[in-house]
Amino acid sequence: MSGVARGRGVAVTGIGLVTPAGIGVDENWRRVLSGVSAATTDPELKGERVDISCRVPGFDATAELGRRNAWKLDRFAQLAIVSARQAVTDAGLDCGSWDGTRVGVVIGNSLGGVATLEKQLRTYFEGTPDDVSALMIPMGMVNMVAGYVAMDQKIHGPSLVTATACASGASAIGTAREWLLSGLCDVVLAGGTESAISPGTLNGLSRMGALSSRTDDPAAASRPFAHDRDGFVAGEGAAILVLERCEDATARNARRYADIAGFSATSDAHHATAPHPQGAGLARALRDALSDAGVFPDEVEHVNAHGTSTPMNDLTEARALHSVLGDRAAVTSTKGVTGHTLAAAGAVEAAYTALALHHGALPPTANVDSLDPSIDVDIDVVTGRARQKRIQVAASTSLGFGGHNAALVLTAA
Known about the structure:
By secondary structure, the protein is of the alpha/beta class. The protein is built from 14 helices and 16 strands.
């Protein structure tokens, strides 16, 4: 008998995606199922130590938002607003007719408008104080993305930005779920956004040893769980989910992609940037999220793993997953396609997990020719091509600098 406590869930009724895999749900899902990497040589990084990235292809902020709005927003906010608009439309809702006092927004972000700040500081040091833009601060502040989405969507309920590094998007979704279950809101727009591909940021990540140095073959650089992985490819993007209580979604006959049935977050308290060697904190987060959902470990059929393509992350995450789930669940890292979208990653991957439940297909992990033999536990990594499989229970796991861990459990609607 299933252990799923479906009464505690909230429904995913709308999805907005603006990622290196494309703009919109359909483009994203096709690209992720193809397993073809989005990484390319980046002209804006010419001459830098690492000159490859995963940017959103064909994104035109002026066309999407209008010149008046686009010029005053950093790209991380532009991506979030566009994905929020997509999600609300996808959910069959209209901000012009809802009670905005009962709607909330919570978005994960970590680096804010770092590209704007980098550019404006260069202007200051190379020019005069009067050359600095009056918009520098509002464009750079992390919290402004939730504020701008609230303004755009006429949201008058709570707005918040979660900052748990690369677990920020998952933390936002978990927070939104609590808002809904507590009765604080009736609808929440939840997700993550990041656009931090700049020379300064990437040089900092490179100096840490986090980035792949496979710059002569960008499309093969992000290779989670592979024996020859050497780091991640920096990406950008945003994912926003419309979340509602299951009974409310059912009452308005809304389409439900999946339900967010459980969530948990933990801290490693181990190291500033390295995960716990055995993945103890992540394992505890996953166990607690399963308990929150009323799901038994042997019911989990699929995991969209954090899977950054760094040697340490993939090893410790594999250990954590195996300690909780054994080798039963099919494991995917969609970062092989999208690169690492940093604070957006947990939300992007939660969206892909919801789509896997909705469509009955498990995306492959790109660029994995052979699994790393140093991973000393058995996990079933999906490689080569997508698996067609109807599933009922899936999980999405996220880790972040500072020892942040987050786990979401999703179930078929």
